[in-house]
Design goal:
Deoxymugineic acid synthase 1; alpha/beta; 15 strands; 327 residues; globular; single chain
């Protein structure tokens, strides 16, 4: 894999982030820490089990409400000797819409670090290409009446400074080709990552090729379809083409989807509370998809799981300003 290294302990592939301080390596499979409020208390144990299995990349966000639980798990893992130092972990968090303003970046980042009980992030992302009024944080969607035009230049300049050494890498999430191009027109340090919905049912070929040409690594969220989330479904795990491929290789559909993502040169964050499935999701590095598999995957009808009217207000669904999904 291009620009990749291998972990000697767990044989988990990593990708170097070229536009980063110290060029850190990002494990290509990470554990997503977006959970329902009722599951937050259980997250600490899940993270500890994941670290025991070999996970080193953990993805959270201010809006998830899980930074504190993840931080407690990291502290416990260090105390138990599951990892010898903070440097062995790769921690991602994200700037929420209400703080997507030039003068809010550093305070928001410091707040995340305080919740996580760590001194720096490995990756800090702008969560959505949307800004909102600086009101009390509530989970998505943002009410229409609270949306504000995003100051791309001012916001990225605040991120661009490597946020005063508080993060090693900076990046984007849910940004289209057009919006990334806007960022690149004035970025001194370009984004290392664009985190997007990506799986065999929503392959994002145009956006992936654009990011590759710009040296930006794609990080896939909802790689298995986000079953159980408000936008998720079982369409990935129940896809007949993927089932055929899984049967031919003696693998699970989840492993096929994750293997396909990795073979595209992308990384993924996958969410699971089941220890056996967490283990299975790491079993993707000792086999490869073949040409016939790709023929099947290329035949899968494409469908985004997050609908274009995801951003709703009490008055009903609406398209966000400048159209979230523009090219």
């Amino acid at each position: 894999m291009e620009n990749s290294t291998q972990s000697t302990l767990f044989n988990i592939s990593e990708l170097k982030l070229s536009s980063s301080s110290g060029h850190p390596s990002m494990p290509v499979i990470g554990l997503g820490c977006s959970v329902e409020k009722s599951d937050i208390d259980a997250l600490k144990l899940v993270v500890l089990e994941a670290i025991e299995l070999g996970y080193r990349h953990f993805d959270t966000a201010a809006i998830y409400g899980t930074e504190k639980a993840l931080g407690e798990a990291i502290a416990e893992a260090l105390r138990l000797g599951l990892v010898s130092s903070r440097e062995q972990l790769f921690i991602t968090s994200k700037l929420w819409c209400q703080d997507a303003h030039r003068d809010h970046v550093i305070p928001a980042l410091k707040k995340s670090l305080s919740a996580l009980q760590i001194e720096y992030l490995d990756l800090y992302l702008i969560h959505w290409p949307i800004s909102s009024k600086p009101v009390e944080m509530g989970f998505a969607p943002v009410p229409k009446e609270d949306l504000l035009p995003m100051d791309y230049k001012g916001l990225w300049e605040a991120m661009d400074s490597q946020t005063l050494g508080l993060t090693k890498s900076i990046g984007l999430s849910n940004f289209s080709c057009k919006k990334i191009e806007t960022i690149l027109t004035f970025a001194i340090i370009p984004p290392s990552i664009n985190q997007i919905e990506m799986h065999p049912l929503w392959q994002q070929k145009k956006l992936r090729e654009f990011c590759k040409a710009k040296g930006i690594i794609v990080n896939a969220y909802s790689p298995l379809g986000a079953l159980g989330r408000m936008w998720g479904s079982n369409q990935v795990l129940e896809n007949e083409m993927l089932k055929q491929i899984a049967k031919a290789h003696g693998k699970t559909v989840a492993q096929v989807s994750l293997r396909w993502i990795v073979e595209q040169g992308a990384t993924a964050v996958v969410r699971s509370f089941n220890k056996e499935r967490m283990k299975q999701n790491m079993g993707i590095f000792d086999w490869e998809l073949v040409d016939d598999d790709y023929k099947k995957i290329n035949q899968i009808p494409q469908r985004r799981l997050i609908p274009s009217d995801f951003w709703v207000s009490p008055q009903g669904p609406f398209q966000a300003p400048e159209e979230l999904w523009d090219d």
